[in-house]
Amino acid sequence: MKLLTHNMLTSHVKGVTKGYPLLIKATEVKVNEVDFNPQFVSRMIPKLEWSALVQAADELGHRQDLPVELVPEYEKNEEFLKKVHRVLLEVEVIEGCLRCPESGREFPISRGIPNMLLNDDEV
Amino acid sequence: MNMMEEAASQLERDHVHSVYDKIAPYFNDSRYKAWPKVQQFLLNLQPGSIVADIGCGNGKYLHINKEVFKMGCDVCRPLVDFAWSQGHEVQMCDGLHLPYRDGCFDALLSIAVIHHLSTKERRIRAIKEMARTLRVGGRIMIYVWAMEQKRRKFEKQDIFVPWNPNPQSPTDREPAKPRKRATAQSVSEAIDNADKHRKVRSTSSVADEEELTCTTPQQSTQRLWFFSRSLDSVFDFGSLSISRSSSRDLSTLSSPTGENERNKSSHWGRGRGLIKQVSSFFSPTSVIGSEEDVFDSVTNLHKGQNAPGGNNNSPENQSVSVSLAQECGSLALPDLVPFQKEHLKQSSDESEGGLQGKEQHESTKSSQGSERQVEGSCLRYYHVFREGELAELIENHVDELLVKHTYFDHANWCVVAEKVQICKI
Questions:
Q1: Is the Cβ of B82 closer than 8 Å to some Cβ of chain A?
Q2: CATH number of the domain at A3-114, please?
Q3: In this protein, which residues make up the domain named Methyltransferase type (chain B) (predicted)?
Q4: If you write DSSP's letter for every residue of B175-187 in order, what string do you get?
């Protein structure tokens, strides 16, 4: 699971109103090399919940110096875009779980795949 | 969860989820090609878009268009594992409860998925759920099997289609894409199986259509399917009507309307027992005996289908399983089963008690032996769509989507719809 994906994921347990962002507990993290496409990254940024990304990167120990707030005119800031690229697309959770911040319900991640299936009593 | 929900859930577990779990290894080789129009939809997206394929299966659309970020989800673990092995971002989830925040996607795909949902309400919910995750202005492309196929028309809309892992005529066969990352054991197995089953056709819509319209004699028994009533009609207690038929077995399971009225209120209190009966009856494997019986009875069924009135008068040497298989074709009777149980309890001189007992026994037996061979017992449930049905469903029930295009593509009805802002006054 990449952090770009994580940024879209939310807890959907019945009754939960604040299920985002999911807290990450990772037992295995990989960092891959992914081709850097600055326009791609630049276009992704407005679609992100920025603070959730920073928090997730922090939880994985891969935040490095990613800023709490978006830098102005990031579109032209290649250094910044590279940092974002790394965190969004290169860091990957292979094993661990995602925890609902409200209910505490844990969704396992195994072999890189989050299992977001709910039980009958959670729908 | 109410009774209908439970029955629908159970039906989909038995005749969608568990079947795909079993047949997943067969999918992993030749379905490399995407539907051209779906491919075009993806290629036309703005660079930097985020797209989700809801019900992505083995991820065959997830490699298209490097300029957009794609993710997929499915309930079938083996298929999702395979998609991951190809380098895609995928999750396990269920289309009625998507784990994505509101409005986070620029586009969505739902290709040959919602026809596996067994009630109209669930199909609407699935579309609404997807609409929720779509941003305003974003677009969704939905493909569902058409009732009106090129060379044949399904006679009913709710069907069980047997899985045929060994089709006669080979079609396109691309080699498996090289694995993009290290695989876990189960995925390697899946790929090994794929290599072994290289001749096997997977079940994209094209393959399915050919499967269904193939006319080689050897395949004629294998291309048959069971018709069924929809779960919607089954649970429509308000307008309950009992079909009269000359079939011996049908009459044993019917009860007069008066009984229904009296029983109606007590049924809402029924729990698991009823659902088990309904679901087990719905499961064709529970009413058919051995694999040989499937094809014998299906052949009879096929002949019977074209007979006037569609009734199958059973020959005298009927075993329970074969006659019940014939019922499966004319009418599945879950609406009558619960009433019959009540009826049985109340009436002391129930001569058909023996039949019911045996049917129960058959059900229990086969549900325990459900890990039989893949070939014989994999029946997938489909609700095939009439022309205009999908568009109507959206127009009438999903205010947040505006239908932009509808068309027929090979064996599918297709809709492209756009998420619109709903103004609440």
A1: no
A2: 2.20.25.10
A3: 53-142
A4: PPPPPSS---HHH
Q: Are B368 and B285 in contact (CB under 8 A)?
A: no
| Residue at token pair 């922090």 | A58
Residues within 8 A of A (CB atoms), B 302-361 only: none
Q: Give how far Cα A40 sits from Cα of A50, A67, A92, B41, B63, Å.
A: 16, 20, 18, 19, 16
Q: How far is A22 from chain B (nearest CA, A)?
A: 10
Q: How many residues does chain A have?
A: 123
Q: How far is B130 from chain A (nearest CA, A)?
A: 14
Q: What span, in angstroms and rounded, lies between the C-alpha atoms of B319 and B230? A: 26
DSSP state of A87: I
Could you report the per-residue pLDDT of A17-51, keeping only the tens digit for each?
999 999 999 999 999 999 999 999 999 999 999 99
Nearest-Cα residue of chain B relative to residue A49? B104
Give chain A positions within 8 Å (CB) of B92.
113-117
CB A117 within 8 A of CB A98: no
Residues of A within 8 A of B1 (CB-CB) are 120, 123
Q: How many helices and strands (H and E) does chain A possess?
A: 4, 4
Cβ of B47 under 8 Å from any chain A Cβ? Answer: yes
Q: What are phi and psi of B64, to 5 degrees?
A: -85, 130
Locate the domains of chain A by residue range: 3-114
Establish if B179 touches chain A: CB-CB under 8 angstroms.
no
SS3 state of residue B414: strand
Structure tokens at B92: 């396990």
| Tens digit of each residue's pLDDT (9 = 90 or more) over B346-385 | 443 434 333 333 433 433 343 334 344 444 467 889 999 9
B38 contacts chain A (CB < 8 A): no
Cβ <8 Å between A10 and B101: yes
User: How far apart (Å, rounded) are the C-alpha atoms in residues B170 and B160?
Assistant: 24
Residue in chain A nearest B94 by alpha carbon: A117
CB B396 within 8 A of CB B314: no
Residue B336: pLDDT above 80?
Answer: no
Tell me which of A5, A7, A8 to substitute to probe the interface with B (most B C-beta atoms closer than 10 Å).
A8
**For B222, how many CA atoms within 13 A lie in the half-sphere containing its CB?**
19
Kindly report the pTM of this predicted structure. 0.69
Taking the Cβ of residue A12 and every Cβ of chain B, the question of whether any pair is shorter than 8 Å is answered with yes
